[in-house]
Each structure stands twice: as C-alpha cells, then as structure tokens.
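Example A, followed by Example B.
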Amino acid sequence: LWLYEQAAPDMGLAAAGRAALAQDASTAASNPAGMTLLERDQVEGGLLGIFVTAKFDSDSTTYDGGDGGDAGSFVPAGSFSYVHGLSDDLKLGVTMGSNFGLGLDYGSQWSGRYYVQEGEIVVMGVNPNIGYRVNDWLSVGAGFSILYGELNQKVAVNNPLNNPDGQLKLDADDLGYGYNLGVLVEPSPKTRLGLTYRSKIDLEFDDAVSARNLSPALSAIIDLALGSNRKVDMELTVPQAVMFSIFHQLNDQWAIMGNIGWQDQSDFGKTGISLASSAGSNSVTADRNFHDTWHYAFGTQYRFAPQWLLSAGVAYDDSPVDDEDRTPDMPLDRQIRYATGLQYDLSEDVTVGAAYTFLDTGDAKIEIDGADYPLRGELVGDYSSNYVNFFNVNVIYRF
C-alpha cells in the first residue's frame, strides 16, 4: 500500500497539495524544492498510530476455518524532518519515515490459511535532500534515499490424510537505494505548482525458509526444490511515482489545493523468485497482474483565528488489481481517504497539531478457483470491513 500518511500536518489534507505546500520542514520529504520557501531552520516530527480493520467474509471455500479471517492490527509509526538554510537560496534537509508497506495477520485457523496466515512488508528510509532557488519563481530540489525493508510471511501447509497443518515461514531484510527530484513554480505570490518524481527502489530478500510439522513426503519435496538449506531469493520493487500538486491562497483565511499522481504498481506486481538446490538454480517471475494506479486529491485550509488553522481533504486512488487476480496476502482495492487536521501556533517558534485520516480500502473481492490450486483450495468472498484509521500528533519548531 502506498502510504501518504505521515506524522505531519498535511495528513489532515489527505496529502492534497503535498508537492506544492512548502509550509513546514516536512516539505523535505514531499518536495525538496519547497525548502527554499522556509525563512528559518525548522524541525518537524511526530507520532503516527495506524489501526487496521480487515474482516474477510467467505462465500465459498474448500477448507473451512474457525473464522473468516480478521487481519486487523495496530501499528505505531512516526516521521522526522529537518531543514537547514546555508543561504536564502540554498537549503539542506533530511527526513526519516516510511511511505510504503502492508501488514496482515489472519491467524492460523481461517479458511484462506493455505494462501497466507501472516504477511508484512515494512520499509523505513532516510532521505537527505538539497533545494535551490533559481530565481523569483523557480526552485529545484533533489535527494537520495536509503531504504531498509523487512519481509515476513507465514503460510499453512495442507498435509495429506487430514494430518494437522504444517507451516512455512520466511523472514528477511535488505537495503535499497533510490533518488527523488522536485520542482516548485510560483506563477504568483498566491499560487504554487509542484512536480515531484520518486525513483523505484529494488529490494532483494534472501533467507532460508523455515518449516515445521511437515509430512515426510512434503518435507522431501521442499528439500528437492530448495536444497537442504532451503534458500529463497525474492526481489520486490518499491514503485516509482510522480505527483503534480497545486496550491492557491484565496484570501487571508482560505486556501485550496489538489493533486494528480501516478504510481508504477505494475512493476511492484512482478516478484522475482530464485531457488537454488543440488539440481541447479531456477529463476522465475511471479506476475500478480498489477496495473499502474492514479491518485487524485482535493483539500482546503481555513484559518478561523490568528493562531488556528483547520484542514480537510479527500483523495482517491484506483485499484492496482482486478478481482480475479486479487489474493488475500495483498487485498488491495480502490482507496478513498477522508481527512481533517488542526494546527495551533503556541508562539512564533512552535506549532503543535493533530490530524486524522479514514481510509476506505473497498470490499477487495477475491475469486480464486480451487481447480487451479488443489492443495490450497477455492477461496471466494470479500471484506465486509476493510479500512484503516490513522491518527497523528505533530510539532514544528523554528529557530
């Protein structure tokens, strides 16, 4: 899942206008060119709470479980940004946080346990940036990313003759590297246009698959496929993305902003898998038939008192996968975000705030034909509850 939610004030806009806001140090993460608009050095950071609710209702399954599968959980997170001015026109910044990931835990007894029991992709990155004002109306920025990724997967194994389930587990991590570019154009003092590009980042997860409670026959098959060390290499790509944003200050109280974005999810959907055994090495690409996605957002800010700023926004991202290709380890559907936030200026140096986003991720219908996967079985249904609640608190300090 592409995460627009950070522990920053723009979460209250559903990220609308993100590449053009340039209102605080978090612009180092969203568009480094916007750092040139900050008059003083700044630190911005905060805490983020992510509450996932994902309840699967099965219409037809080969293997019934104790429940339909509730993959909900709580995930704590946070982000940090710092901007330092070398001069009025040249700024340096660094950010830490995550903008991509997904975590699910269905438990061990649900009807789709032979497809997934638990799955998690977690990334955390450090992104140094530089911004430079070319002239009165044009600023440019660039940076590079060092991304740490961790992959955890568990799946039940259908042992023959009604024996208790076995389990396969993979835990691996890797470092990946990428870059980002940004442009900020100011056609008038009240209007800003922002364009950003974030490169893809390749992650290679290389580790041994652990197994427990497998029948002797299945254990022998796995050893033949993977070798005695059961090593597997999986190559995943954090997709490249482009965002265009506009910000316009209507008057002293009201401002409006919006986004159009694109993400190369088709590249993320292709997973390279390498198996090494005594019989030789095999490499295949598992294509989940993902397609590229588009993002749209609109937001507004209202300063109803000198020290108070209210934000609201809505965003839409289309689904990266069709119903017939969707699997329960990545139940991604279209995404609609509703957000609001509030900022309060304690002084000229300190601003505190909070924001909330409700993410509706759709019913994510799954249609897996059991004839194609006899040991895993048929799995047909949708998610009666499939949403995420995000809460953040944030602080901006200027010096």
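Example B, a separate protein, is given below in the same form.
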Amino acid sequence: MRFLIAINLGPGAVSQHFTALAKELVDRGNQVVLLCPGRRHDLEEPDGNPAIYTWPSHRPTLLRDGIFLHRLLAKKRFDCLIGNFVAVNWICLVGAAARVPHRIAWYHTLSTQIDQDAPRRTVRGSMQRIRKRLVYKFATAIVGNSRAAILDLRKTYGVPARKCHVLGFALPDPMLNGVSEMFPKTPRKIVCAGRLHASKGQDVLIQALGKLIGAHPELSVEFLGVGPMRAGLEALATTSGVRPNCEFIGAVPHHEVLERMRAASFTVVPSRTEAFGLVNIESLSVGTPVVGSRVGGIEEIINDGLDGFLFKPGDVGDLADKMLLLWEDHELRSRMSLNARNKFLAEFAQPEATRRQADYLLTLTKPEHLSNA
C-alpha cells in the first residue's frame, strides 16, 4: 500500500511517533510519503522510502497548499492519507476529491482545552468548528489519541462511532536513546512540563505548593514551557509566597525535558482538561511517577496508586495531599518509579507499540473496513 502522512518533522514526541510509524510501514513493504510544512528544500527526499515532500506554506491552510496536494495525489496513486493538525482539512477534502480510498484524520486536542485557552468564543472560532464538522464528513476514519478524545469528537462534531478509533502515542525508550545524567537526581525537585496556558493548570500546582512550603521549604518546582500565562503565574507564585521555590525554565529541547524528569522525585500534570498528555508517558519512560489530574487521557494512562496518583482537577487541597504523600514516603516513590518504567515498556515504548499500531492501521485500511464518507 501507499501511505501519505502529513506531519511536522522535528525532535518532538509527536514527530518521533509518526516517523517511527512510517518506518514500520516501510519495513513491511509499503511505500510512504511524509508531507511536512514550510517548503523546506533541505528536507525533501522525493526518491526515498519514506519519501519527504514539503507543503508550500508554513501552515498548510492556503489555496496553494490544496493545489499542491491535488497535484501530488495525481502524480502518485495513494491508498491512504493520514492528516494531523491543520493539514487534516486539505487531506480530507482534496483526498476525497481525488478519490483516495482511505482518509484518516488524527484528533489531538479536546474542544474543552481550546475553549479554556481561548475563553472568548470568536466568530472565527465558531466558523472553524463548523468547518471541522464538514471536514470530518470527508474522512473515512478518525483516530483519537485516547478514549476521551473520541468521546469529545463525537459530542462536539457529531462523528459517527463507526469512524472512530483509538491509538495512543508511543516513544522511543529514552534509557536506550541517549538519556544520561545531565542533571543529578534531586530529591527535593518536582517537574511540571507543558504550555503555560489556562488549560494546563499550573496555577493549581503553585497554590498547592503554597500549602506545603511551610513544613517543607526545600520543595521546588521546575516549570518547563512557554506561553501567555507566564507573567500571571510568576505573580501568583509571589503572592503565594513560593516564588523562590518556582523556577520558570522556559522552552527546552525534548531530550532535556526527559533529563529533567529523570532527575526529579515526581512529575505533576495539573491539567484541567487533556486529550492525552504526552508528558505523562515521557515521565513514565524515565521511571518518574506522575501526580496528574483525573481528567481525559491522563486517567487512561496513570494507574492511581500504582505508578502515580490522580487528584480532582482544580482541587488545590487534593493535589497538595497527594504531593505530600509521595514526597514523604521514599519507599512508595521507589515502588511507583519501578511501576512507571514497567508501564511505559509494556504499553508505550517503541518499537513494540509502533508495531501494534501498524497492524491496526493496515487492518483499518483494508477494503472491508472502508467507511462511507
């Protein structure tokens, strides 16, 4: 079969996931094209397998991008197109016009997260949601990265159940791929990695830290990520009396996120809403327990009491209690650390997880599984 996967190439976890999936499909005798944004001639390898092409635009949302895709589809007879993020629109619409039999849209972000990060619903935002309803009608299948994503997809966009499938993300094992001891193990350190947006809930962590710092002044949190909430979070840390205990690192390379997680006692994921939360499996991959909100995909990943704790989203007291329990019990942390690592290896590690997903995709794209658009 011939696959086209529209995805950005880079060092991030999502890029790594789809690059590994492409390689697995190639290893099974399929032909794969990776279509990446930005007209990057330095990346293009049209004769390779996987071959690499690039869209004319940095974000493939313009008419010229649709024309480019139409010409590419006319040149190569694809059996399956896979779209991610904004590329989903052209993949589904142009793919349907070109009669490509399988058009798969990958669903990454919950509508509730979009709403929380942009609380004022604009006309443009409403139109985008209407447009997405139309686009999904031209997909033959939609893959969500969690069961929560599929529930949101069906509720928000009215997608029928027969089109919906769940495939989570996978990562290469960092303990075999270059994670070293760049940062020494620091028992007093907590890591919180993610965009500094309202939906990510870093304010809840700062307030929880304020409840603990009196008895445990040695506690500190590294915030990894950038976003519009940074100034407000720094101000909240000051008013909560924990500013010296909060370090806002900013954007760091993916490998450094893993290094800092490995060096921490545990990771906190305080999201108010989350489709999947790659930071959860990143933390598991380096054997660091997670204290995460009981929302969306997080509660599908973390086994409460085994490889981490779940707390009621937005509940400062509950988060503080779970942090304190994990902080004060070294034996519990050690046990959860081992369970976290084993959970990652069993469910989220490449190449095993990638092989399972390739099996699923090849079954999904058989003619008898074709859904009517």
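On Example B: Residues 203 and 271 are 10 Å apart (CA to CA).
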